Every structure is written in structure tokens, then in C-alpha cells.
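Fold these two proteins, one after the other.
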Amino acid sequence: MKIVLKKDVANLGEEGDIKEVADGYGRNFLIPQGFAVLCNKAALNELEKRRHHIEKRKEEKRKEAMSHREKIEAEALEIAVASGEKGKIFGAVTAAMIAEELAKKGMIVERKKIELPSHNIKLLGNYSIKIKLYENQTAALQLNVVAQEAAAAEA
């Protein structure tokens, strides 16, 4: 079934995209929820009328992603965790923890967009974390994982 997206849908596409989806997905979820319309001449004409507005919104998202990228890359993040003698962490540093620390600094990032090596960090040290922003843009966050005792001594 061919559809035209009316709104951004995660893992499918953005507003204005024409996609081929399973009949049930389109008929039972996307169309009733208002995320899409059936692809026909009327929908394509409406899409052409709105094309300018859609492109304008996409450009705004690109600019916002670039400014977000500059903020993320300008500042290193430090997380203090409990660890053993050999630098092994009790537990792990996860994407959710990183998203929470970024939120404290005023940078809102979804945890799903944070790419960690092997999905979590279990050793102390410095890491370069990749964060997906918009389209194919990414930001590199410098993360320093330190022991709680060392962080308390510095403060």
C-alpha cells in the first residue's frame, strides 16, 4: 500500500515522504491515527501545495541540529560511578544515564539516539559517544567516566 506521510513517523519517514507499507500497518494504524493518507492524485496535489512549508520545516530542523551539535561537542561530560580497584564499574553507564546528565546541562537528547560501544560502558575512562541528531548528522560527545571517590576528592 502506498501512502503519503502527513507527520514524521519514527523508523518510517518524515512529513511529505511517499512510502510503501504493509496494508495492515497503513489501514489499521497510520491512516486512522492521522499520520498518513492513501497515495492518490488528490493527496499528491495537496503534497505539492504544502511542499514549500515542508521544506522550510526540514531546513529549520537541520539548523537546530547544527546548533545542538555545537553545544554537545563544545562540552565534555563527566559521570561519577562506584567502581572496584581495577577500574571496573559496579553496574554500567547506559544511554539513559547519559541522556539524564545532558538534560541537567540543558541539552535534551533521546536515549535511543545515543550510540554506546557495546550498548553500555563497564570500565572507567574516556569515551567518544556518537549521538544521532537529524537525517545523517551526528555529534561526538566526550564522556569521562570516573570513580565516585575521585570525583568527591576533586570537589
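Now the second one:
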Amino acid sequence: MLTADRFTGIFKALDASPWNAATGRGGKRQAGIRRGVATPLYTPEERRRRDATPWTLVQGILAPVQFLVFLVSLGLVLNYLTTGEGYVAATISIIAKTAILYLIMVTGSIWEKVVFGRWLFAPAFFWEDVFSMLVLALHTAYLLVLVLGIGDGRGQMMLALAAYAAYVVNAAQFLMKLRAARREETGWRGGDAGQMT
């Protein structure tokens, strides 16, 4: 059975960094995951790094930009599928959406390295990253089909819609994680305030 522990074990084995403890990958967090104990999304040090890095702002800007491009592109794709018109505009919009996806994936990996000490598959964002790989694969498959001239315009647009459906699920994952982080921070600040009084 494919579990987060097995994936984490595979990627841990591939990661040759000898500084596991310094990058937040050892000890209590991993033990908490194995025992099924709820662990905070960010340790205090990870939260500090998250708030200090400019990559957090980059992600905060790129995510809504990508969503806006997605909405425009989705409209153009659906227009083409219903009317047969506007293939070029729809194609350009899908390429633009894919380019932004690549950009957000690269900058997101940098953000994850700065905050969690790993390029991808940090325990806090493990399943989001796994699903991001599917989203990336589907968008890349669209580009390959387009460049190689495989299938007709309708088939290409259907592949783009599959990529977009995966993107919506992945975006929902990240929004839920962001919401959880905000709830956690509110509780954390409230807990601090309670301790100070």
C-alpha cells in the first residue's frame, strides 16, 4: 500500500543531506507523523523562515495570478469546445497557464527548501506536492500532444480540461492547508497571549 511514510522514506533515502536535524527533518515531527499524532503545520522556526523569506510573497502573488489565467483559459477552452471557434486563443491561454504553473512549481520548491529544508515533499505539504506532480504531468502532456501534433483540437482541449480539473483539486488542497495554517496561528497567538497574562 502506498502511504505517506513510504513516499517519505523513498525521498529521504534519495536526499543525501547529512544535516537532517538542522533542516527540520528528524526526530519529533517524523515520530508524530508515524504515530498519527497531529503535529503543527509549522514549527516556530519554520514559521519564522516562512515569514522572513521573499518567496512567500512570490507564492502569494503567483497563486491568484495563476487562478485568474486559469479562469480566462477555461472560458476560452469551453468556448472552443461548444462553438468550434477560437482554437488559437484557447491554445495560447493553455500555454500561458502552463508557463505560470511551471513558474509557481519552481518558486514553490525554492520556498519549500527555505522553509522546510527540502525541495519537495516536506511532511507538512506532502500530499499537496504529490498531487502537484499529477497536475504538472497533465499540463506537460498537453504541451507534448500540442507540439507533436497528436490528435485533433477537441482531443487536445479535453486533455487540457483534465489538467484543469486536477489543478482545481490541487488548488483546493492548498487553500485548505492555508486555512489550517491561519487557524493554527490564531490559536498559537491566542495561546501566547494567554500565557503572557
